[in-house]
């Protein structure tokens, strides 16, 4: 059985982008009200008194867009300085990173994943929801800033959408050649925007690998992540290529994570809410950490069963909650 020691923490469900595959322009989303967000004090109590004691040691901050949450640098510092924190990372769209990269690094963040779906500013704008101004350049500057500051590994996430950005696969893969950048291709999931998914579908990782293989060759990488990506390398490249293939392969049996939403729901699985716990309400109602630890342990005990069911039901349905709401 996999050890579940990795918690993805959503800091906020709002975002400054409107990615077509996540929270498209015009979609009606019920945002979490300010007073319903877990406060930093509550979050730190949960981390220190509940999650760490039951065995979580690795944390990723995500959203929505985590850099939109006020005082995020302070929170990073607080989690990074806990002696039991073995790993702290963040997933961001990079828009505010040029300004914040150094502060985040100084606060103790060392690993960062930045979403970059296109190298073409126009296509990028289309994907993230065009608002008549170019944001690609600012994201690119954010990536450069993170690189210069010393984030390592620096991973770039690409959601591959047929007919939108799949013609750029080789250019995006080439980013891993000269710099120690790790480019990860994510199969588009039917979560969030079902219309776009219905129109486009997804491209299997193996098809991408074939294209890359015929251009440069591809070898299995010695550097393996501890997440769901299968890691390869263009021969001689400094960085790696990861493939996250939740549509064409099922990696539920290797799942080592749970997710905490910005309003304090602990979910055992991205696609399955069975057994989820409302930790924030419990905490606000005065339930003691010892009791919360028991509830989380119970959820950990039933997680293999939930993963098993998910594995056998497959990723065929369309899920109405978006990644920004769940905490992708
Ligand atoms: N805003 C940050 C960002 O975009 O990196 C963090 C949150 S975002 C929800 C986390 C990841 O989920 C991103 O890499 C995004 O591309 C991915 N994602 C969102 N919707 C998706 C979908 N329908 N299929 C596959 N990946 C998706
Ligand atoms: Fe925002 Fe990230 Fe969702 Fe794009 S994928 S809309 S950047 S939360």
Q: What does the model show?
A:
With 328 residues, this protein is an alpha/beta fold. The protein has 11 helices and 12 strands. The protein has a 12-stranded mixed β-sheet. α3 links the parallel β3 (87-92) and β4. α2 (72-80) packs parallel to α3 (97-107) and α3 packs parallel to α5 (136-149). The longest helix has 25 residues, at 289-313. The mean pLDDT is 91. The chain binds S-adenosylmethionine (SAM) and iron/sulfur cluster (SF4). S-adenosylmethionine is lined by residues 15, 21-22, 62-63, 65, 91-93, 115, 157, 159, 186, 188-189, 191-192, 323-324, 328.
Task: Jot down its keywords.
single chain; 328 residues; alpha/beta; TIM Barrel; twelve-stranded mixed sheet; 11 helices; 16% strand; binds S-adenosylmethionine; binds iron/sulfur cluster
Short description:
With 328 residues, the chain is α/β, with parallel strands linked by helices. Helix content is 36%, strand content 16%.
Q: How many helices does DSSP assign?
A: 11
CATH level-4 homologous superfamily: Aldolase class I
- CATH fold-level topology: TIM Barrel
What's the end-to-end separation, in Å? 24 Å
Report strand %: 15-25%
Any idea of the CATH class? Alpha Beta
Q: Say how many strands there are.
A: 12
- In the sheet with the most strands, the strands line up as 7-8-9-6-5-4-3-2-1-10-11-12
Bound molecules: S-adenosylmethionine, iron/sulfur cluster
Q: How big is the Rg?
A: 19 Å
Regarding quaternary structure, what we see is single chain
CATH architecture: Alpha-Beta Barrel
Main sheet, how many strands, which sense, barrel? 12 strands, mixed
In the predicted model, the low-confidence regions spanning at least 5 consecutive residues are none
């Amino acid at each position: 059985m996999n050890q579940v020691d990795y918690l993805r923490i959503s800091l906020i469900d709002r975002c400054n982008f409107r990615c077509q595959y996540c929270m498209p322009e015009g979609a009606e989303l019920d945002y979490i009200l300010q007073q319903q967000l877990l406060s930093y004090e509550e979050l730190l109590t949960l981390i220190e008194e509940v999650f760490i004691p039951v065995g979580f040691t690795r944390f990723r901050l995500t959203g929505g867009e985590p850099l939109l949450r006020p005082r995020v640098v302070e929170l990073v510092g607080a989690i990074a300085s806990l002696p039991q924190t073995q790993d702290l990372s963040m997933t961001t769209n990079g828009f505010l990173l040029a300004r914040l990269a150094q502060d985040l690094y100084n606060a103790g963040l060392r690993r960062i994943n930045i979403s970059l779906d296109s190298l073409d500013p126009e296509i990028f704008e289309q994907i993230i929801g065009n608002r008549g101004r170019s944001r690609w350049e600012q994201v690119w500057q954010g990536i450069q800033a993170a690189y210069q500051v010393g984030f390592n590994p620096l991973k770039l996430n690409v959601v591959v959408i047929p007919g939108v950005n799949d013609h750029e696969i080789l250019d995006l893969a080439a980013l891993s050649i000269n710099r120690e950048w790790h480019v990860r291709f994510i199969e588009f999931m039917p979560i969030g925007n079902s219309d776009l998914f219905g129109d486009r579908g997804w491209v299997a990782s193996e098809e991408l690998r074939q294209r890359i293989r015929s251009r440069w060759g591809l070898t299995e990488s010695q550097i393996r992540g501890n997440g769901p990506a299968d890691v390869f390398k263009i021969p001689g490249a400094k960085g790696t290529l990861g493939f996250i293939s939740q549509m064409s392969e099922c990696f539920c049996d290797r799942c080592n994570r749970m997710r905490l939403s910005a309003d304090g729901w602990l979910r055992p699985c991205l696609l399955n809410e069975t057994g989820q716990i409302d930790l924030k309400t419990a905490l606000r109602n005065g339930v003691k950490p010892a009791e919360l630890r028991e509830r989380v342990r119970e959820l950990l005990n039933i997680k293999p069963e939930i993963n098993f069911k998910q594995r056998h039901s497959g990723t065929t349905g369309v899920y109405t909650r978006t990644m920004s709401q769940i905490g992708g």
